[in-house]
Amino acid sequence: MPLLESPFAQLDLIRQPEQHNDPLQAFDAADEYLLNHLAEQQPTTATRVLVLNDSFGALAASLQGQVQVTSSGDSFLAAQGLEKNLVRNGKAFDAVRFVPASQVPSGPFDRVLIRVPKTLALLEEQLIRLQGQLAPGAEVIAGAMIKHLPRAAGELLERYIGPMHASLAVKKARLLIATVEDRPVAVSPYPTRYTLDAPAIELLNHANVFCRESLDIGTRAFLPHLPKSLGSARVADLGCGNGVLAIASALQNPEAQYTLVDESYMAVQSAAENWRAALGERDVIVRAADGLAGQDADSLDVVLCNPPFHQQQVVGDFLAWRMFQQAREALVVGGALYIVGNRHLGYHTKLARLFRGVEQIATTPKFVILKARK
Fold first, then answer.
1. Helices and strands (DSSP H and E) totals, the chain
2. Which neighbouring-strand residues pair with 98?
3. InterPro entries in the record, alphabetically (predicted)?
4. Backbone φ and ψ of 154, nearest 5°
5. Residue 247, CB-side half-sphere exposure with 13 Å CA sphere
6. What is the domain partition of the chain in residue ranges?
7. Measured in Å, how far apart are the chain's first and last C-alpha atoms?
8. Among 160, 304, 322, 316, which residue's Cα sits nearest to residue 244?
9. What element of type H or E holds 58?
10. Which CATH fold would you assign to the domain 192-373?
11. DSSP states of 62-125 as a string?
12. Cis peptide leading into residue 365 (ω within 30°)
C-alpha cells in the first residue's frame, strides 16, 4: 500500500476493519489536498485544529505533534482506525483526543478540516455545533473527491459559517473554503422523530441515523416476523440503528435480556434514548462497537440484524459477511441469527456456509427474512 505523504508526516495507514489484501487504501487525494492547504498557511504547534469525519485517522495522525489537533466523527471504526494508525506509525494510541459525534468538541478552534460525510444531515449538525467554537480569523475547509461532493455541502457552509469559495480540482479532489462571518444563531433541526403504529412508539433519530425521517422498508418487512416467546433469552440487535428491532422485540419478550450495538455513535445515542422512552429503566446494554467483535463466544441466544451494504461510499457485502461471522461466534449452539435482506443479495447461500440450517421465515417482493441456526 502507498504511504500518505504530506508536509506534516509520511504515514503507513490501514483501513478498519482490516481485510487481507484489502484493495482499498485508508486515504485519498482529498486528505492530501486538505493537508497541503493547511501546510500552506504555516500553522504552528499552538494552532488549534479540529478534524471532522477523518477516514481512519489519515488527517489527525498526520497532524499529531505538529498542531493541537482534536478529532471528531460518528464512526467507531474510524476512531479505532485512528488509534491503530497512530500506533502503527510509532505514536501513542491516545496521542490524539477523539470526541464521538454524540458529544460536542470544545474550542475555540483556529482551523477546521472536514471530510464531507455521505449524510449531509451530519455535516449540517456539525456546522451548527461550531457556533461559538471558532476563534477570530478561523477558517473552515471541507474536502471531498469531486464525485462525492454535492452542491448542498457548499450551501451549508455559506449558511452556517460564512462566505465560501471552491478550490481548483487537484487529482479529482476539491476543497470548499469558508471564512467565519457572523451568522444568526441557528437551532438544530436534529434529532428528528417519527411514530410507529405497531408497536405504538415514537422514535428519535440523531443526525447521522440511517433513515432518520421514517422507518426503512427492510425493517418494516422484518418487524412482523421477529421471534416471539423468547423467555429469558440473551438477544443482540446487531447494527441497531435507532434501536427499533430490539425495542419491538423487548416489548413482546419482557424477560429477555438485550444488547444493542452499532458502529455509529449517533445511532447508539438514539437507541439508548429510544429504549428509555419505550421501556423505562429496564436493563439493557447499548454500546458503540465493531459489531460483536467484543462479545464473548457462546454468550447470545438470538441475534437480530438488518445488515448494511456499504461502508461510507464503498458498496459491498464485506461488512454483512463479517457481521454474520461475528454472530456465529457469539451465539450458543442452537442459537439463531434472524436477518432481513434484499432478495438479490443471496444471503441464504452465504449463511449456509456458516450455519447448519437456514430457513426462510417470510418474503416480500423485495426482501427475504431468514433464520440461521448455529
1. 10, 20
2. 71
3. DNA_methylase_N6_adenine_CS, RLMG, RlmG_N, RsmC/RlmG, SAM-dependent_MTases_sf, Small_mtfrase_dom
4. -65, -35
5. 27
6. 4-179, 192-373
7. 37
8. 304
9. helix 58-63
10. Rossmann fold (3.40.50)
11. HHBTTBEEEEEESBHHHHHHHHHHHHHTTS-TTSSEEEETTS-----EEEEEEEPPS-HHHHHH
12. no
Identical topology for domains 4-179 and 192-373: yes
| Chain mean position to CA 212 | 14
CB atoms within 10 A of CB 318: 17
The domain 4-179: what is its CATH number? 3.40.50.150
Q: Tell whether the torsion through CA atoms of 288, 289, 292 and 297 is positive or negative.
A: negative
Using CA atoms, how far residue 42 sits from 14, 35, 54, 140, in Å, is 28, 11, 21, 16
**Could you give the CA distance from residue 311 to residue 115 in angstroms, rounded to a whole number?**
15
Please check whether residue 147 is in contact with residue 104, taking contact to mean a CB–CB distance below 8 angstroms: no
Q: The whole model's pTM is what? A: 0.94
Other CB atoms within a 10 A radius of the CB of residue 306 amount to 24
24: its cell numbers:
482499498
For residue range 92-146, list pLDDT tens digits in order. 999 999 999 999 999 899 999 999 999 999 999 999 999 999 999 999 999 999 9
Task: Name, in order, each residue with C-beta under 8 angstroms of 215's C-beta and a sequence gap of 6 or more.
Answer: 194, 196, 203, 244
| CA dist list (Å): 111 to 43, 48, 89, 94, 138 | 9, 7, 24, 21, 6
Helix (H, G, I), strand (E, B) or coil at 252: helix
Return the higher-pLDDT residue of 316 and 160: 160
What is 277-334 written as a DSSP string? HHHTT---EEEE-STTTTSPTT-EEEEEE---SEETTEESSHHHHHHHHHHHHHEEEE
Q: Which three cell numbers stand for residue 268?
A: 447508539
Indicate the DSSP class of residue 345.
G
Confidence check: pLDDT of 242 > 70: yes
Q: What is residue 179's DSSP assignment?
A: E
Residues linked to residue 165 through DSSP beta bridges, in sequence order: 177
